What does this fold into?
Amino acid sequence: MGEYCAPAAAAEAEGERPVAVSVLPLPPVAAAGRYLYGDYDRCSTKQVFDNLHGNISLDPLAREFVDTEEFQRLRDLKQLGLTYLVFPGAVHTRFEHSLGVYRLAGEAMNNLQKYQGNELGIDRIDVQTVKLAGLLHDIGHGPFSHLFEHEFLPRVHPGSTWSHEHMSALLLDSIVDKHAIDIEPDYLKVIKEMIVASSDVSTAEGVKEKRFLYDIVANGRNGIDVDKFDYIDRDCRACGIGSNFQHWRLLEGMRVMGDEICYPAKDYLSIHKLFTTRADLHRTVYTHAKVKAVELMLVDALVEANEYLGISLHADDPEDFWKLDDTIVKSIETAPNDELKKAKEIIQRIRRRELYKFCNQYSVPKDKLDHFKNITAQDIVCSQITSKVLLKEEDVAVSNVKIDLTRGKDNPLESIKFFKDFGCEEKFPITDERVSHLLPVCNQDRIVRVYAKKPELVEAVSEAFENLQLRMYGEKTQVHGTPTKKKRRFN
It folds into this structure.
């Protein structure tokens, strides 16, 4: 310190008045010289520019997680899986999505702290915890995102209850131990609980204090969370889909009442746009007929390769799991194993755009939704009456698509609490009879799509599919029959 005092001492010796130097206090530091949990200054942050949210400031602890190989793996996981083969712009990854959720989680906490910080007892620990939950909520995703969880694993392990949320929690423990990240066990436990809050609502329901914090990143209570805010805006932009949903209105208007996040009643249509925009993305992008055709083919390839590569076995061990990403396709293609011949052929068909042929689809009638069971390839084959060829189950692929507004057949607005204005202490739901009559009466759609794995089977599969509809509903519920030209094209 003496060298910094020397100029002042010399000036005083010469009769000059020393210049007062003010020293800004550094943030509190732990005994080991690290910043305390939730404390940082501008010198300790790193700026990352995101094309959706602009600058994102990563605090020191967040940077430690981001710099791990397990988190960097997210760069090799496309946010929308194979959708880019139909929508070329959909090449963004889980990496930038995770940074975006981290940013929005911080905005939500800053707004709550600004307006209700003293009332709710929000401190730096709460802010840091919610932001880290946003950053790390998707590290447990498998190759091609939801395809691994909802399509591949149920095929190789029927009845599988595996979820990327619980793998994220397991992987988080592994990261902390492997990289010696300095975080209190109690804080880590809360982060994991926030990550699984959407898939395991009972975990969050058992929380006695600050329950509302568990609804910010992954909301299992009513479905409004910053995860949706980010991926809806990001996916719409990447796929060229228009969106007039404005998440900033909800971030600015949110208010905690009775340990529950509530919203101004005037914003109920904005909230409804959140759910309808999500449903539109599912119908036009995520479950696009060609996208599902590619997914069905890739799942067939992964199932064929699983016996020899043990892909599904990695799902049980977080230390092995993080090594799985979208590059698994190249691993299959370059594997010397002759037993992978069939899997390689399917992947080559995808690259040549020789996809399973989409035959037709129908929407399940509204009065049949309650008792609907997924249609299988066996159902299609058993519905064949007359045809030039005899269908087998391996000739047919079926996609059962479910689209809703997050609450099944129910109106999601009924599970959300609203308030009249900021001076009012009463919260209430908005029921169907109070909302605009332009909103849909039914909030759920079930679509059945059928594909022929071989071009020459399009006509036979189409006829069997129509027979199935007649047998189940007494009429053809599809919009129109398979075009005659399409049937003849492959015969």
Summary: Residues 38 and 125 are 5 Å apart (CA to CA). The two ends are 89 Å apart (CA to CA). The longest helix spans residues 94-120. The first strand starts at residue 46 and ends at 50.
